[in-house]
Amino acid sequence: MMVVPAVAGYMFFMLFQSGGPVNDVLSTLTGLPISVAWLSDPTLALLAVMAAISGSGRP
Amino acid sequence: MVESSAISESTAQRAGDAEGKRLGFRLTLPAQILVLFIAVFPLLMQLYISLTDWSPLSGVQWWNAWTQWNGFANYPDLVSDARFWSALKRTAIVMLVCVPMEFLLGLVLAMLFADEFPGKRLFYSILRCR
Asked: Is B106 in contact with A58 (Cβ distance < 8 A)?
């Protein structure tokens, strides 16, 4: 989706919260309580940012 | 007779082309000035500031940055800075992962939308939100 970068950033910021939809979907799929700190861990933050860039870019 | 008319026609056409080019230049002038201020001016300003020790906190206006001139001393500093190389490495990683990913996502979506399926127009509107 092509959206305004600031809006895309805020959208993905909320998606990757520890109580956000990403962890929620993972918890539902695995059946385990998952609360990954996506934006606090340096490695995971890089992955989250790359996902946000890929998701909000050209497609 | 035929030749002279052909010549006058071609000169008239050339004059029209020149007129069209002038009109085109005048019509795009505002946009060109805008690009000058958005892209060209900041680039030159940054190149100028990169040759000085100026800081926005120094209280000196940027056009007076030459008072803190230090030549090319900033560039060896940059090359010997480990943080610069680690930032460059991360940028390269992000680029190498994200560009193919965006391309693949776009290609998959394009192939999906090449065929007809129920609700195609709705999904097209949702995904192509601009």
From this structure: yes
